[in-house]
Amino acid sequence: MSPLDTNPHLGKRDYYPFKRALVTGGAGFLGSHLCDRLIERGFEVLCLDNFHTGRKVNVAHLADNPAFELLRHDVTEPLDIEVDLIFNLACPASPVHYQYDPVKTMRTSILGALNMLELARIKGARILQASTSEVYGDPATHPQPESYWGNVNTIGVRSCYDEGKRGSETLFADYHRQYGVDTRIVRIFNTYGPRMLPDDGRVVSNFIVQALRGEPLTLYGDGQQTRSFCYVDDLLDAMMGVMDAQGVHEPVNIGNPGEFTIMELAEKVLAMTDSSSTIERLPLPPDDPARRRPDISRVKSLTGWEPKTSLDEGLKPTVAYFKSVVKAG
Ligand code: NAD
Ligand code: UDP
User: Fold this and answer.
1) Going from the N-terminus, what domains does the chain have, and what CATH number goes with each?
2) Which residues pair with 252 in a beta bridge?
3) DSSP code, position 216
4) Which residue from 91, 106, 172, 192 has its CB within 8 A of the most atoms of ligand 1, so it is best to mutate?
5) Closest alpha carbon to 297 in 176, 146, 172, 153
6) This prediction's pTM
7) Cα–ligand 1 centroid distance for 24 (angstroms)
8) What burial class does residue 26 get, using C-beta atoms within 10 Å of its C-beta: 0-12 exposed, 13-18 middle, 19+ buried?
9) pLDDT-based confidence at 327, cuts 50/70/90?
10) Any residues with Cβ below 6 Å from ligand 1, and which?
11) Which ligand is in closest contact with the Cα of 231?
12) Which residues of 94-120 are buried (b: 16+ CB within 10 A; e: fewer)?
Protein backbone atom coordinates (compact mmCIF):
# COMPACT_ATOMS: atom_id res chain seq x y z
CA MET A 1 0.00 0.00 0.00
CA SER A 2 1.32 3.46 -0.89
CA PRO A 3 1.74 6.01 1.98
CA LEU A 4 -0.75 8.08 0.00
CA ASP A 5 -3.49 5.56 0.70
CA THR A 6 -3.11 6.13 4.43
CA ASN A 7 -2.72 9.92 4.43
CA PRO A 8 -6.11 11.41 5.42
CA HIS A 9 -5.19 14.86 4.04
CA LEU A 10 -4.82 13.66 0.49
CA GLY A 11 -7.71 13.26 -1.88
CA LYS A 12 -9.95 15.70 -0.01
CA ARG A 13 -11.01 17.49 -3.18
CA ASP A 14 -11.85 14.24 -4.91
CA TYR A 15 -12.52 10.63 -4.07
CA TYR A 16 -9.28 9.81 -5.85
CA PRO A 17 -6.38 9.12 -3.49
CA PHE A 18 -3.80 10.91 -5.65
CA LYS A 19 -3.26 14.64 -6.06
CA ARG A 20 -0.40 15.55 -8.40
CA ALA A 21 -0.55 14.26 -11.95
CA LEU A 22 2.15 14.50 -14.61
CA VAL A 23 1.04 14.28 -18.25
CA THR A 24 3.94 13.86 -20.68
CA GLY A 25 2.98 14.90 -24.19
CA GLY A 26 0.35 17.01 -22.43
CA ALA A 27 0.20 19.71 -25.12
CA GLY A 28 -0.64 17.14 -27.81
CA PHE A 29 -4.02 15.98 -29.05
CA LEU A 30 -4.83 13.32 -26.43
CA GLY A 31 -2.63 14.82 -23.70
CA SER A 32 -4.40 18.18 -23.72
CA HIS A 33 -7.83 16.53 -23.36
CA LEU A 34 -6.40 14.43 -20.53
CA CYS A 35 -5.15 17.58 -18.76
CA ASP A 36 -8.72 18.94 -18.94
CA ARG A 37 -10.12 15.75 -17.42
CA LEU A 38 -7.60 15.71 -14.59
CA ILE A 39 -8.19 19.37 -13.74
CA GLU A 40 -11.96 18.68 -13.69
CA ARG A 41 -11.29 15.85 -11.22
CA GLY A 42 -9.38 18.10 -8.83
CA PHE A 43 -5.78 17.19 -9.65
CA GLU A 44 -2.82 19.49 -9.79
CA VAL A 45 -1.56 18.91 -13.32
CA LEU A 46 1.96 19.29 -14.62
CA CYS A 47 1.83 19.24 -18.41
CA LEU A 48 5.22 18.35 -19.87
CA ASP A 49 6.01 18.68 -23.57
CA ASN A 50 8.85 19.37 -25.99
CA PHE A 51 6.34 20.83 -28.48
CA HIS A 52 7.38 18.56 -31.33
CA THR A 53 3.77 17.93 -32.39
CA GLY A 54 2.07 19.53 -29.39
CA ARG A 55 1.00 23.16 -29.23
CA LYS A 56 0.63 25.63 -26.38
CA VAL A 57 -2.73 26.68 -27.79
CA ASN A 58 -4.13 23.23 -26.85
CA VAL A 59 -3.70 24.06 -23.16
CA ALA A 60 -3.87 27.88 -23.34
CA HIS A 61 -7.33 27.82 -21.71
CA LEU A 62 -5.74 26.23 -18.61
CA ALA A 63 -2.87 28.73 -18.31
CA ASP A 64 -4.51 30.86 -15.60
CA ASN A 65 -5.73 27.88 -13.58
CA PRO A 66 -3.66 27.63 -10.37
CA ALA A 67 -3.88 23.83 -10.54
CA PHE A 68 -2.12 23.80 -13.94
CA GLU A 69 1.57 24.13 -14.87
CA LEU A 70 3.29 23.81 -18.24
CA LEU A 71 6.88 22.58 -18.47
CA ARG A 72 9.05 22.50 -21.61
CA HIS A 73 11.02 19.31 -21.19
CA ASP A 74 12.07 16.34 -23.27
CA VAL A 75 11.29 12.90 -21.80
CA THR A 76 14.59 11.58 -23.12
CA GLU A 77 16.13 13.57 -20.24
CA PRO A 78 15.63 12.50 -16.60
CA LEU A 79 13.21 14.48 -14.45
CA ASP A 80 12.95 14.90 -10.69
CA ILE A 81 9.63 16.27 -9.45
CA GLU A 82 7.07 15.37 -6.78
CA VAL A 83 4.28 13.39 -8.39
CA ASP A 84 1.62 10.81 -7.52
CA LEU A 85 0.32 9.80 -10.93
CA ILE A 86 2.10 9.74 -14.31
CA PHE A 87 0.51 9.46 -17.75
CA ASN A 88 3.29 8.86 -20.29
CA LEU A 89 1.91 10.05 -23.62
CA ALA A 90 4.99 11.78 -25.05
CA CYS A 91 5.67 10.43 -28.54
CA PRO A 92 4.64 11.56 -32.01
CA ALA A 93 1.71 9.38 -33.09
CA SER A 94 1.25 10.12 -36.78
CA PRO A 95 3.33 8.04 -39.24
CA VAL A 96 4.42 11.28 -40.94
CA HIS A 97 5.76 12.71 -37.70
CA TYR A 98 7.25 9.58 -36.16
CA GLN A 99 9.07 8.75 -39.41
CA TYR A 100 10.48 12.29 -39.71
CA ASP A 101 13.25 11.50 -37.17
CA PRO A 102 12.96 7.76 -36.50
CA VAL A 103 15.99 7.61 -34.21
CA LYS A 104 14.46 10.33 -32.05
CA THR A 105 11.14 8.43 -32.02
CA MET A 106 12.89 5.34 -30.67
CA ARG A 107 14.77 7.44 -28.10
CA THR A 108 11.50 9.04 -26.99
CA SER A 109 9.77 5.67 -26.61
CA ILE A 110 12.57 3.85 -24.82
CA LEU A 111 14.42 6.56 -22.88
CA GLY A 112 11.15 8.36 -22.20
CA ALA A 113 9.62 5.20 -20.71
CA LEU A 114 12.79 4.53 -18.73
CA ASN A 115 12.99 8.05 -17.31
CA MET A 116 9.32 8.13 -16.36
CA LEU A 117 9.46 4.64 -14.83
CA GLU A 118 12.47 5.69 -12.73
CA LEU A 119 10.50 8.72 -11.56
CA ALA A 120 7.54 6.48 -10.70
CA ARG A 121 9.81 4.03 -8.85
CA ILE A 122 11.50 6.72 -6.78
CA LYS A 123 8.30 8.63 -5.95
CA GLY A 124 6.03 5.60 -5.54
CA ALA A 125 3.73 6.94 -8.27
CA ARG A 126 1.27 4.98 -10.38
CA ILE A 127 2.23 5.22 -14.06
CA LEU A 128 0.35 4.62 -17.30
CA GLN A 129 1.96 4.02 -20.70
CA ALA A 130 0.14 5.13 -23.85
CA SER A 131 0.94 2.15 -26.04
CA THR A 132 -0.68 1.42 -29.36
CA SER A 133 -2.43 -1.05 -31.62
CA GLU A 134 0.74 -0.80 -33.72
CA VAL A 135 2.29 -3.38 -31.37
CA TYR A 136 0.17 -5.90 -33.35
CA GLY A 137 1.82 -4.78 -36.64
CA ASP A 138 -0.02 -6.14 -39.68
CA PRO A 139 -2.14 -8.54 -37.63
CA ALA A 140 -2.70 -12.16 -38.60
CA THR A 141 -5.43 -12.43 -35.93
CA HIS A 142 -8.64 -10.42 -36.25
CA PRO A 143 -9.95 -8.73 -34.18
CA GLN A 144 -6.88 -8.25 -31.99
CA PRO A 145 -7.02 -9.47 -28.37
CA GLU A 146 -4.23 -8.53 -25.94
CA SER A 147 -3.05 -12.15 -25.98
CA TYR A 148 -2.01 -11.80 -29.65
CA TRP A 149 1.76 -11.13 -29.83
CA GLY A 150 1.70 -9.38 -33.16
CA ASN A 151 3.30 -9.45 -36.58
CA VAL A 152 5.81 -6.60 -36.67
CA ASN A 153 8.65 -5.84 -39.08
CA THR A 154 11.75 -5.00 -36.99
CA ILE A 155 13.50 -2.96 -39.71
CA GLY A 156 10.76 -1.18 -41.67
CA VAL A 157 9.80 2.49 -41.76
CA ARG A 158 7.14 2.02 -39.05
CA SER A 159 9.45 -0.01 -36.80
CA CYS A 160 10.84 2.99 -34.88
CA TYR A 161 7.34 3.52 -33.52
CA ASP A 162 6.09 -0.08 -33.35
CA GLU A 163 9.22 -1.54 -31.80
CA GLY A 164 9.72 1.55 -29.64
CA LYS A 165 6.27 1.04 -28.14
CA ARG A 166 6.84 -2.72 -27.79
CA GLY A 167 10.11 -2.01 -25.97
CA SER A 168 8.37 0.48 -23.69
CA GLU A 169 5.76 -2.18 -22.81
CA THR A 170 8.60 -4.54 -21.92
CA LEU A 171 10.12 -1.91 -19.63
CA PHE A 172 6.75 -1.36 -17.96
CA ALA A 173 6.30 -5.10 -17.41
CA ASP A 174 9.82 -5.45 -15.98
CA TYR A 175 9.56 -2.41 -13.70
CA HIS A 176 6.43 -3.97 -12.28
CA ARG A 177 7.98 -7.45 -11.86
CA GLN A 178 11.40 -6.28 -10.69
CA TYR A 179 10.54 -3.19 -8.59
CA GLY A 180 6.82 -3.52 -7.95
CA VAL A 181 6.01 -0.25 -9.74
CA ASP A 182 2.25 0.26 -10.07
CA THR A 183 2.08 0.19 -13.87
CA ARG A 184 -0.72 0.44 -16.44
CA ILE A 185 -0.41 -0.19 -20.19
CA VAL A 186 -3.15 0.87 -22.56
CA ARG A 187 -3.02 -0.06 -26.26
CA ILE A 188 -4.78 2.79 -28.00
CA PHE A 189 -6.47 2.16 -31.37
CA ASN A 190 -6.92 5.01 -33.90
CA THR A 191 -8.44 7.93 -32.03
CA TYR A 192 -9.66 11.22 -33.48
CA GLY A 193 -11.33 14.46 -32.44
CA PRO A 194 -10.85 18.19 -31.92
CA ARG A 195 -7.26 19.48 -31.38
CA MET A 196 -5.67 17.16 -33.92
CA LEU A 197 -3.18 19.14 -36.00
CA PRO A 198 -4.54 20.09 -39.44
CA ASP A 199 -1.20 18.93 -40.93
CA ASP A 200 -0.95 15.92 -38.62
CA GLY A 201 -0.89 13.47 -41.54
CA ARG A 202 -3.31 10.93 -40.04
CA VAL A 203 -6.23 9.88 -42.14
CA VAL A 204 -9.13 11.55 -40.31
CA SER A 205 -7.46 14.96 -40.16
CA ASN A 206 -6.10 14.70 -43.73
CA PHE A 207 -9.48 13.82 -45.24
CA ILE A 208 -11.45 16.47 -43.33
CA VAL A 209 -8.94 19.24 -44.07
CA GLN A 210 -8.73 18.24 -47.75
CA ALA A 211 -12.53 18.11 -48.03
CA LEU A 212 -12.95 21.53 -46.41
CA ARG A 213 -10.32 23.04 -48.72
CA GLY A 214 -11.86 21.45 -51.81
CA GLU A 215 -8.62 19.54 -52.47
CA PRO A 216 -8.53 15.88 -53.57
CA LEU A 217 -8.69 13.34 -50.73
CA THR A 218 -5.43 11.38 -50.73
CA LEU A 219 -6.47 7.72 -50.61
CA TYR A 220 -3.52 5.38 -50.16
CA GLY A 221 -3.74 1.99 -51.88
CA ASP A 222 -7.15 0.63 -52.91
CA GLY A 223 -8.82 2.02 -49.78
CA GLN A 224 -9.95 -1.46 -48.69
CA GLN A 225 -7.63 -1.48 -45.65
CA THR A 226 -9.62 -1.06 -42.43
CA ARG A 227 -9.29 0.86 -39.18
CA SER A 228 -11.50 1.21 -36.10
CA PHE A 229 -11.92 4.83 -35.06
CA CYS A 230 -12.53 5.91 -31.47
CA TYR A 231 -13.76 9.37 -30.47
CA VAL A 232 -11.45 11.15 -28.02
CA ASP A 233 -14.03 11.49 -25.18
CA ASP A 234 -14.66 7.73 -25.18
CA LEU A 235 -10.94 7.03 -25.23
CA LEU A 236 -10.35 9.21 -22.17
CA ASP A 237 -13.19 7.54 -20.24
CA ALA A 238 -11.46 4.21 -20.84
CA MET A 239 -7.98 5.50 -20.02
CA MET A 240 -9.17 6.96 -16.72
CA GLY A 241 -11.04 3.74 -15.98
CA VAL A 242 -7.90 1.67 -16.43
CA MET A 243 -5.84 4.09 -14.34
CA ASP A 244 -8.46 3.93 -11.56
CA ALA A 245 -8.74 0.13 -11.58
CA GLN A 246 -6.64 -1.67 -8.98
CA GLY A 247 -3.87 -4.09 -9.89
CA VAL A 248 -4.19 -4.01 -13.69
CA HIS A 249 -0.65 -4.48 -14.98
CA GLU A 250 -1.31 -6.35 -18.20
CA PRO A 251 -1.91 -4.44 -21.45
CA VAL A 252 -5.49 -3.30 -22.08
CA ASN A 253 -6.86 -2.50 -25.55
CA ILE A 254 -8.90 0.68 -25.81
CA GLY A 255 -10.70 1.60 -28.99
CA ASN A 256 -14.01 1.45 -30.80
CA PRO A 257 -14.63 -1.94 -32.46
CA GLY A 258 -16.65 -0.34 -35.30
CA GLU A 259 -14.51 -1.19 -38.36
CA PHE A 260 -14.48 0.83 -41.59
CA THR A 261 -12.54 0.70 -44.83
CA ILE A 262 -10.58 3.85 -45.57
CA MET A 263 -12.74 4.28 -48.69
CA GLU A 264 -15.85 4.28 -46.47
CA LEU A 265 -14.25 6.95 -44.29
CA ALA A 266 -13.49 9.08 -47.37
CA GLU A 267 -17.13 8.80 -48.50
CA LYS A 268 -18.43 9.71 -45.04
CA VAL A 269 -16.20 12.78 -44.83
CA LEU A 270 -17.22 13.95 -48.31
CA ALA A 271 -20.91 13.59 -47.43
CA MET A 272 -20.57 15.24 -44.03
CA THR A 273 -18.64 18.24 -45.34
CA ASP A 274 -20.82 18.57 -48.45
CA SER A 275 -17.56 18.73 -50.38
CA SER A 276 -17.03 18.44 -54.11
CA SER A 277 -13.46 17.15 -53.60
CA THR A 278 -12.38 14.21 -55.73
CA ILE A 279 -10.50 11.14 -54.49
CA GLU A 280 -6.87 10.81 -55.58
CA ARG A 281 -5.25 7.35 -55.42
CA LEU A 282 -1.70 7.29 -54.08
CA PRO A 283 0.59 4.31 -53.36
CA LEU A 284 0.07 2.43 -50.10
CA PRO A 285 2.92 3.23 -47.67
CA PRO A 286 5.20 0.29 -46.74
CA ASP A 287 4.01 -2.05 -43.95
CA ASP A 288 0.60 -0.35 -43.79
CA PRO A 289 -1.58 -2.79 -41.76
CA ALA A 290 -4.37 -4.32 -43.87
CA ARG A 291 -6.96 -4.39 -41.08
CA ARG A 292 -7.35 -3.44 -37.48
CA ARG A 293 -10.09 -3.84 -34.90
CA PRO A 294 -9.77 -4.08 -31.12
CA ASP A 295 -11.12 -6.92 -29.05
CA ILE A 296 -12.30 -4.89 -26.07
CA SER A 297 -13.47 -7.73 -23.80
CA ARG A 298 -10.71 -7.06 -21.27
CA VAL A 299 -11.43 -3.37 -20.74
CA LYS A 300 -15.17 -4.12 -20.59
CA SER A 301 -14.74 -6.73 -17.88
CA LEU A 302 -12.26 -4.62 -15.89
CA THR A 303 -14.06 -1.29 -16.00
CA GLY A 304 -17.48 -1.81 -17.59
CA TRP A 305 -16.43 0.66 -20.31
CA GLU A 306 -17.59 0.56 -23.87
CA PRO A 307 -17.51 3.36 -26.44
CA LYS A 308 -20.64 5.50 -26.73
CA THR A 309 -19.85 7.55 -29.83
CA SER A 310 -20.38 6.21 -33.34
CA LEU A 311 -18.09 7.37 -36.15
CA ASP A 312 -20.89 9.50 -37.61
CA GLU A 313 -21.48 11.19 -34.24
CA GLY A 314 -17.80 11.75 -33.52
CA LEU A 315 -17.04 13.17 -36.94
CA LYS A 316 -19.53 16.04 -36.40
CA PRO A 317 -17.60 17.90 -33.64
CA THR A 318 -14.34 16.99 -35.38
CA VAL A 319 -15.46 18.58 -38.66
CA ALA A 320 -16.74 21.61 -36.71
CA TYR A 321 -13.33 21.96 -35.03
CA PHE A 322 -11.44 21.77 -38.33
CA LYS A 323 -13.84 24.31 -39.87
CA SER A 324 -12.82 26.71 -37.10
CA VAL A 325 -9.07 26.28 -37.69
CA VAL A 326 -8.79 25.68 -41.44
CA LYS A 327 -9.34 28.30 -44.11
CA ALA A 328 -11.29 27.09 -47.14
CA GLY A 329 -9.09 26.79 -50.27
P1 NAD B 1 0.34 13.99 -30.55
O2 NAD B 1 1.43 13.97 -31.55
O3 NAD B 1 -0.73 15.00 -30.69
O4 NAD B 1 0.91 14.11 -29.08
C5 NAD B 1 2.19 13.68 -28.70
C6 NAD B 1 2.78 14.72 -27.77
O7 NAD B 1 4.06 14.28 -27.30
C8 NAD B 1 3.02 16.06 -28.48
O9 NAD B 1 2.54 17.11 -27.67
C10 NAD B 1 4.53 16.12 -28.64
O11 NAD B 1 5.03 17.42 -28.73
C12 NAD B 1 4.98 15.37 -27.40
N13 NAD B 1 6.32 14.79 -27.50
C14 NAD B 1 6.83 14.03 -28.51
N15 NAD B 1 8.09 13.67 -28.23
C16 NAD B 1 8.38 14.17 -27.00
C17 NAD B 1 9.53 14.14 -26.17
N18 NAD B 1 10.66 13.51 -26.54
N19 NAD B 1 9.50 14.78 -24.97
C20 NAD B 1 8.37 15.44 -24.59
N21 NAD B 1 7.26 15.52 -25.34
C22 NAD B 1 7.26 14.89 -26.53
O23 NAD B 1 -0.29 12.52 -30.56
P24 NAD B 1 -1.52 11.91 -29.77
O25 NAD B 1 -2.46 11.35 -30.75
O26 NAD B 1 -2.03 12.88 -28.75
O27 NAD B 1 -0.82 10.67 -29.05
C28 NAD B 1 -0.50 10.69 -27.67
C29 NAD B 1 0.04 9.34 -27.27
O30 NAD B 1 -0.93 8.32 -27.52
C31 NAD B 1 1.31 8.92 -28.04
O32 NAD B 1 2.19 8.26 -27.17
C33 NAD B 1 0.79 7.94 -29.07
O34 NAD B 1 1.76 6.99 -29.44
C35 NAD B 1 -0.38 7.30 -28.33
N36 NAD B 1 -1.37 6.79 -29.28
C37 NAD B 1 -2.23 7.63 -29.91
C38 NAD B 1 -3.12 7.12 -30.84
C39 NAD B 1 -4.11 8.00 -31.55
O40 NAD B 1 -4.83 7.49 -32.42
N41 NAD B 1 -4.26 9.26 -31.25
C42 NAD B 1 -3.14 5.76 -31.13
C43 NAD B 1 -2.21 4.94 -30.48
C44 NAD B 1 -1.34 5.47 -29.55
N1 UDP C 1 -4.35 6.97 -45.20
C2 UDP C 1 -4.87 7.40 -46.41
N3 UDP C 1 -4.75 8.71 -46.73
C4 UDP C 1 -4.14 9.61 -45.90
C5 UDP C 1 -3.63 9.17 -44.67
C6 UDP C 1 -3.75 7.83 -44.35
O7 UDP C 1 -5.43 6.61 -47.19
O8 UDP C 1 -4.08 10.80 -46.28
C9 UDP C 1 -4.51 5.55 -44.82
C10 UDP C 1 -3.23 4.86 -44.37
O11 UDP C 1 -2.55 4.31 -45.49
C12 UDP C 1 -3.76 3.81 -43.42
C13 UDP C 1 -5.01 4.45 -42.81
O14 UDP C 1 -5.38 5.49 -43.70
O15 UDP C 1 -4.15 2.66 -44.14
C16 UDP C 1 -4.78 5.01 -41.41
O17 UDP C 1 -3.65 5.85 -41.49
P18 UDP C 1 -3.18 6.76 -40.26
O19 UDP C 1 -1.89 7.40 -40.67
O20 UDP C 1 -4.27 7.64 -39.80
O21 UDP C 1 -2.95 5.74 -39.05
P22 UDP C 1 -2.26 4.31 -38.92
O23 UDP C 1 -1.81 3.82 -40.27
O24 UDP C 1 -1.12 4.55 -38.00
O25 UDP C 1 -3.33 3.47 -38.36
Assistant:
1) 20-191+231-256+293-308 (3.40.50.720)
2) 186
3) P
4) 91
5) 146
6) 0.95
7) 9
8) buried
9) confident
10) 24-25, 27-31, 49-54, 74-76, 89-93, 108, 112, 130, 132, 188, 190-191
11) 1
12) bbebbbeeeebbbbbbbbbbbbbbbbb
Q: Let me know: does 49 contact 24? Beta carbons within 8 Å.
A: yes
CB atoms < 10 A from the CB of 164, how many? 26
Ligand 1 center to residue 90 CA distance, Å?
5
202 lines ligand 2 (CB under 6 A): yes
User: 3-class SS at 244?
Assistant: helix
CB 181 within 8 A of CB 127: yes
Ligand 2 neighbour 262 (Cβ under 6 A): yes
- Distance (Å, rounded) from C-alpha 291 to C-alpha 260? 9
Q: What is the pLDDT of residues 173-220, one digit of tens each?
A: 999 999 999 999 999 999 999 999 999 999 999 999 999 999 999 999
CA nearest ligand 2 atom 19, residue: 202
* C-alpha distances out from residue 305 to 77, 145, 291, Å: 35, 16, 23
